Amino acid sequence: MTANKPGDPTTLNRLYGRAKGKALRAGQQGLVDDLLPRIAVPDEGPVTAERLFGRPCSLHFEIGFGGGEHMAGRADMLPDHGFIGCEPFVNGVAQALTHVAGDNGSQAPLGNVRIHHGDALEVLSRVPDGALSFLYLLHPDPWPKARHAKRRMMNDGPVRMFAAKLKPGGEFRFGTDHPVYLRHALMVMQRHRADFEWLCQTPSDFLTRPGGWPETRYEAKARKQGHEVWYFRYRRR
Ligand SMILES: C[S@@+](CC[C@H](N)C(=O)[O-])C[C@H]1O[C@@H](n2cnc3c(N)ncnc32)[C@H](O)[C@@H]1O
């Protein structure tokens, strides 16, 4: 990676604060060097099912997959669907690659996952409008201080893009354990109610993890700390 390119660690650290973490173990470094280039989202041009998976298929897009548990779990459940995950934190990418390679012992290698080591919105902007069946934003960085609210992923600009990229009937799933983010997200989504229908009938709908929604590492940590976790499903109108 060369300096100042989108995937460059210096650029990523500046953008996200912690794109680099603990040194990778040899096996993880091997996956980053060998497997990642084979399943990386192309750096330029349209991001389509045909280009990434060689066939038309339902497309899922995960923003900030952390260690990739949810993305790998969903990809394992839906082998005919294509999954695109983006994460600037290299340790998370390495962790996700172990799931894709089937090295964690819990599942077979996954042929239906493509990964971008970097900014999700840049990749999302290259997805054709109306192409996504599912979009996931699970436990985004909370940026709890009011003066940092503009940095939250859930804001009018990104949410407009989520609406554009989802097909009618497509689903946007969002989860958080952070009360400030919860309030902020509800207000933002309320402004976009013409595009999104909140699939919530009773309070337990957003207090219970729906079926087909694998637990993420961050979520497990939040529960261990005794936090309530909120789950939101919105249908693109
Ligand atoms: C609190 S962590 C949650 C990770 C994971 N979703 C989970 O639930 O375990 C938020 C993640 O979002 C990632 N992130 C922040 N900004 C991002 C961006 N612009 N594009 C993609 N990922 C981003 C961070 O690197 C971090 O891994």
Automatic annotation (TrEMBL):
InterPro entries for the chain: SAM-dependent_MTases_sf, tRNA_(Gua-N-7)_MeTrfase_Trmb, tRNA_methyltr_TrmB_bact
Protein's name in the database: tRNA (guanine-N(7)-)-methyltransferase
Binding site for substrate: K145, D177, T216, R217, Y218, E219
Protein species of origin: Novosphingobium rhizovicinum
Reactions catalysed, as given in the entry: guanosine(46) in tRNA + S-adenosyl-L-methionine = N(7)-methylguanosine(46) in tRNA + S-adenosyl-L-homocysteine
Keywords tagged on the record: Methyltransferase, S-adenosyl-L-methionine, Transferase, tRNA processing
Binding site for S-adenosyl-L-methionine: E62, E87, D119, D141
Transmembrane parts of this sequence: none
Pathway the protein contributes to: tRNA modification; N(7)-methylguanine-tRNA biosynthesis
Family of this protein: Belongs to the class I-like SAM-binding methyltransferase superfamily. TrmB family.
Top enzyme class: transferase
Enzyme Commission number: 2.1.1.33
Pfam families in the cross-refs: Methyltransf_4
Function: Catalyzes the formation of N(7)-methylguanine at position 46 (m7G46) in tRNA.
SUPFAM superfamilies: S-adenosyl-L-methionine-dependent methyltransferases
